[in-house]
Amino acid sequence: MKIGFEHGKLDGIKSEAVVVGVFEKFQGFKFEGGGDFKKEAAAARFTGGSGEAFFALDRIGRPQKLVLFVGLGPKESYSPAEARLAAAAAVRKLGERFVRSALFVLWAEACKGKIEDAVSAIAEGVILTSARFERYITDKDRHSKQLESAAIWLEKRSAKAEDGLKLGRTLSDAVLFSRDLITAPSNEITPAYLAEEAVSLAKAYGFKAKIMDEKECAKLGMGAYLAVGAGSANPPRFIHLSYKPKNAKFTLGIIGKGMTFDSGGISLKPGEGMGAMKSDMSGAAAVLGAMKAVGELKPKVGVEMVVAACENMPSGSAYRPGDILTSMSGKTIEVQNTDAEGRLTLADALTYMQKQGVDQVVDLATLTGACVVALGTDIAGVMGNDEKFIGELTQLSGVSGDQLWQLPLQKDYRRFIKSPVADICNISRVRWGGAITAGLFLQFFVDEKTPWAHIDIAGPAYRDDDLGECHRAEGAGFGVRLLAHHILGKEKKG
Asked: What is the C-alpha separation between 162 and 4, in angstroms, rounded?
């Protein structure tokens, strides 16, 4: 996807179509020498609401161009996320007419003085919606026919706009990197493959990489993590990337659940929908994508990344319900369901991360179906031990587009994961509150002095429908932009 800027008069543009974003209660939009499109909008019942789009009958320019209007929703609730969604809606609509090139007229009124955010969001919406995972499709006729080039129109050149475009490209590349890892099949994406990708990032950007096998992890006492991976022919790999810029005053620890395939183990999942369990490493893909963005942007903020990668498979060597595991922290865990495996790997990852001298820790994991029941497929649940930290992350939803909703870590619910034979049980003994009890399990392995947030991305990690810039049966790359913006925000604060 080629994307850049156009300046000057709209009359001389070369693109096949012009895209204009407008707010709700559309009052017309007048081009040089053209009409205001009020009648056309009324006929199409276009109001400028979020997600709305229509082609005007009139054309502008020489030769004449298609005009596509997209809605930005209410002016008072505008955010970069709305700009991103509008750009995505435009790309889908342009695809209906097989448009290959388009000019996006920057909705300057919507920028609210933050032109770089608007430009970045438009670029992300265009690039990500235009991209499809077609690696394994050999029939060329089946390949999607999407937008090939786009430009953002500005009346005058702007350094801030250039910065915004650079950020948009960088974040889009990072998200696509994450999406490809999630969408590719598990016969390709193994723990060893994730480790290789991490090493490649380290070589490309100068990160320090540490990859540990089973023996090295055993020496560190990672009994919970190793138990989960014991049933697979593909051995586990513990992945640690470190980015330490000079004079960094803040270091963020990011952990991603790295279950490259989750069969449920001995507590085998039903066959229906099991194919989507290749996406159980979406947390790992998110933190690896975030590291790619960090490598490109080079913020003056330290980042430590950890992924405890493995497969959860049934075999003669697999761990069993009733087993008692000793974690890296020394705390013991009673296993009552081997399909509550992600929290076991994260327990050891959290212990390891807290030894790295970080100022905050955030983990991303496709952890519970209960979170999907609570919040649906578009919103991730966030919980933790530090309200300020959680507030920082939720506030970024409007910029990143990665929607979060806080769930409570209800202390009274700890009684549901108490074990009569070990320090804690890996699953609740009641059906309800599963996302919260999973969070409480993780909290058991976090020092109270460590600001920590847990993001359950089970809902938005993998798409079953086309939404925004995401596509059906593909990984969403949820969390990449959220982490990147949080890191950049820490850099600005110094």
From this structure: 9
Q: Which residues are catalytic?
A: 269, 343
Q: Is 392 inside a domain boundary?
A: yes
Q: Same domain, yes or no, for 112 and 247?
A: no
**Domain check: are 45 and 193 in the same one?**
no
Helix axis angle for 282-297 and 191-205, nearest 10°, is 10
Among the ranges given (100-104, 253-257, 305-309, 415-419), the one the predictor scored with the smallest mean pLDDT: 100-104
Q: Assign residue 181 the CATH number of its domain.
A: 3.40.630.10
* Residue range(s) defining the domain that contains residue 73: 2-130
Phi/psi for 331 (5° steps) reads -75, 145
Positive/negative CA dihedral, 355, 356, 361, 362? negative
Same-domain status, 190 and 77 = no
Q: Is residue 116 part of a domain?
A: yes
- Position 33 confidence tier, pLDDT thresholds 50, 70, 90: low
Q: What is the DSSP string of 67-132?
A: EEEEE---GGG--HHHHHHHHHHHHHHHHHTT--EEEEE--HHHHTT-HHHHHHHHHHHHHHHH--
User: Which helix or strand (DSSP H or E) is residue 340 part of?
Assistant: none
| H helical segments located in 206-341 | 214-219, 223-229, 282-297
Over residues 428-472, the pLDDT tens digits come to 999 999 999 999 999 999 999 999 999 999 999 999 899 899 999
Q: Is the peptide bond before 451 cis (omega within 30 degrees of 0)?
A: no
- Residue 331 in domain: yes
Max CA distance (Å), the chain: 80
Question: Which of 178, 254, 193 shows the shortest CA–CA distance to 470?
Answer: 178
Q: What is the pLDDT of residue 408?
A: 97
Looking at 95, 130, 165, which one is the last position of a domain? 130
Burial class of residue 199, CB neighbours in 10 A (0-12, 13-18, 19+):
middle
Number of domains in the chain: 2
